[in-house]
Specification:
By secondary structure, the chain is an alpha+beta fold. The longest helix is centred in the C-terminal third of the chain and has 20 residues. The chain has a domain of 77 residues: OB fold (Dihydrolipoamide Acetyltransferase, E2P) (Beta Barrel), CATH 2.40.50.140. The strands form 2 sheets. The protein has a 5-stranded mixed beta barrel. A 3-stranded antiparallel β-sheet has the order 8-7-9. Helix 2 runs antiparallel to helix 4 and helix 5 crosses helix 6.
């Protein structure tokens, strides 16, 4: 029962007893850990700053063979993302990060890159000097969600195919094609809109924006002559729909962030 100390992102906390809590922590080196924090509600405990959802810290964990819960032996709070509480929309986006991670990753399955990307997403959402208007803070939701959702799909092995038609294998030229389709079962785009109800109709501009992002990140989108909010919204709704398809479940906060106009 060797213990480890690792960077951890707290995804959920529940009361276990009058003095203890259980927590779901996404650790950088060991993946998602479900653990018992004994005495976490006592005045004196080894959990500096207290365990709280959507906070970052150094966590001590002992995984016990055959036990349903690990032991959380310590927690040293390092980051709290307070700006997530300045806007309900931003708060919902943060909750979506937590909801999606707990569905996307198996317990004790390490995903260090996805951990880093999730923390970066929260920092994007929470970055504020305290003087920004709420509208300025909320403007970061769309790029943060694009970055996060793309990372979830890539790091769990479901990166969408962006170059070739997933039905024919032929290259897709977004300049010459009209409406396209996205086939979630095949994990990519088709070069034309089809009547197949299992495919989702999408615009060529959606694929073009995704290609730019995949090749150059958010910096590439900033350099585009035009990336209107509607285009970013369409891309995020497509990725959210695909995330839901891959997970086989809809994260509770998905429609709060992206609305009800998701592909079915």
């Amino acid at each position: 029962m060797a213990g480890v100390i690792d960077d951890g992102l707290c995804l959920r906390v529940w009361d276990w007893s009058e003095t203890s809590q259980t927590a779901l922590v996404f650790t950088r080196g060991a993946g998602v850990v479900r653990g018992l924090a004994k005495g976490a509600k006592r005045p004196k405990h080894p959990y500096s700053g207290g365990l709280e959802m959507l906070t970052l810290g150094r966590v001590g964990v002992i995984v016990r063979a055959g036990a349903e819960l690990a032991l959380i032996t310590s927690w040293d709070l390092s980051e709290t993302f307070p700006a997530l509480r300045r806007s309900l929309a931003v708060h919902h986006a943060g909750l979506y990060v937590a909801d999606t991670l707990q569905h996307a990753i198996r317990d004790h399955d390490p995903h260090a890159v996805l951990f880093d990307q999730a923390v970066e997403c929260l920092r994007m959402l929470a970055r504020s000097d305290g003087q920004e208007a709420v509208e300025q803070i909320e403007a970061r939701i769309a790029p943060a969600m694009l970055k996060f959702q793309w990372s979830v799909l890539v790091e769990t092995g479901y990166k969408p195919e962006l170059d070739a038609d997933v039905q024919t294998g032929e290259p897709i030229d977004v300049k010459s094609e009209g409406a396209l389709s996205f086939a979630p079962a095949l994990g990519g785009f088709c070069g034309s809109a089809t009547g197949d109800l299992s495919c989702w109709r999408v615009r060529g501009g959606t694929l073009e924006l995704l290609r730019d992002f995949a090749s150059g990140g958010l910096e590439a989108l900033a350099a585009r002559e035009q990336t209107d909010p509607q285009s970013m919204d369409r891309v995020n709704r497509l990725l959210a729909s695909y995330v839901r398809y891959v997970l086989g479940v809809e994260p509770a906060t998905m429609t709060l962030v992206f609305g009800s106009r998701l592909a079915r």
